[in-house]
Design brief:
This protein is an alpha+beta fold and 314 residues long. It has 2 domains: 132 residues, GAF domain (Beta-Lactamase); 158 residues, Alpha-Beta Plaits (2-Layer Sandwich). The protein is 42% helix and 22% strand. Strands 1-3-2-5-4 form a 5-stranded mixed β-sheet. Helix 1 runs parallel beside helix 3. The two termini are 27 Å apart.
């Protein structure tokens, strides 16, 4: 998934302490339950621990949690014939909805037990959601909504480790808008900002959901392509170059501009490409892509070039 992906799969964990139907309930320690959830601010961890306890007390086939604010979902196990849904909130603020599934009906006593558990879990879930929101803001470029340099370093390091473990390729694109200063000079910064937002939209629509799109600052962007070798990365870079070159933003020349204007803001893009080798660091690969971008600028702009030594950077 890319940084803005909205599906998360967590394993449904069976519990040896779950009581069979018709047998005494598994023992429950409310303090241990609250402490286990409150011990982490990671939303995945909190949800996984919650379903472990629910499974121990109730017995589940599967579950689905949908976040109120963004419709992002987390799930585990498998769907089953009987479903029960709870809208969760804390201090009057909605958190999301939780769907529990299994092969037999949920009895009244079981529903009361579920509601009691969810009431105890709500503070920990609210804290994890607030932490997630804070982290998202720290890793998001305010103008474009793309990830920022922090997101590149954090997510990129994780993806690079995953690629090495799975022996899968990964590539990076460095993208710069050619002569972007002319747009600001001719039409003003509001038009320049809108152009950058449209570039961000173009990156999202010309890449896969699993790719990470980043604004590094100014008019420079990065795209991290997990699972992509150099051939795929070059093709993707060319799609991006053509799409940015086709952008047309209606604009009126600012009053202090001495440059001619046809009422449309446009620009081209130069792209440098690097495939990250098994011994490469993220920063080394970025440097290779950035050097290729500089070479594309020096040789005429509006072109895609692969970096020398792609995949072999130390």
């Amino acid at each position: 998934m890319n940084r803005d992906g909205n599906a998360h799969n967590l394993q449904l964990v069976s519990s040896k302490g779950k009581a069979p139907t018709g047998q005494p309930e598994a023992p429950f320690d409310a303090l241990e339950f609250v402490q286990s959830l409150a011990a982490s601010l990671d939303l995945d961890t909190v949800l996984e621990r919650l379903q472990e306890h629910l499974n121990a007390q109730i017995g589940l086939s599967g579950w689905l949690f949908t976040l109120q604010e963004s419709d992002a979902t987390w799930s585990g196990g498998k769907e089953d014939r009987h479903r029960i849904e709870y809208g969760m909130s804390f201090n009057g603020s909605p958190l999301g909805s939780l769907v529990l599934m299994r092969g037999r009906r949920f009895g009244d006593h079981e529903q009361q037990r579920i509601e009691a558990l969810l009431g105890l879990a709500a503070p920990a879930l609210a804290n994890a959601l607030r932490f997630r929101q804070l982290t998202d803001r720290l890793e998001t470029d305010e103008l474009t909504g793309l990830g920022n340099r922090r997101a590149f370093e954090k997510q990129g390091a994780q993806w690079l480790a995953d690629s090495r473990r799975q022996n899968r390729p990964i590539s990076v694109l460095a993208i710069d808008i050619d002569h972007f200063k002319r747009i600001n000079d001719r039409y003003g910064h509001p038009v320049g900002d809108e152009f950058l937002r449209q570039v961000a939209h173009t990156l999202r629509t010309t890449t896969r959901e699993s790719d990470l799109c980043i604004r590094m600052g100014g008019e420079e962007f990065l795209v991290l392509l997990p699972g992509a070798d150099l051939t795929y990365a070059m093709d993707c870079a060319e799609r991006i170059r053509l799409a940015i070159g086709a952008l047309r933003i209606p604009a009126t020349a600012s009053g202090d501009s001495e440059l001619e204007s046809d009422g449309v803001a446009r620009a081209t893009a130069s792209v440098g490409v690097a495939a990250i080798g098994p011994r490469s660091s993220l920063q080394a690969a970025y440097q290779v892509a950035d050097e290729a971008l500089y070479a594309a600028k020096q040789t005429g702009r509006n072109r895609v070039l692969a970096g020398n030594g792609c995949g072999d950077a130390a």
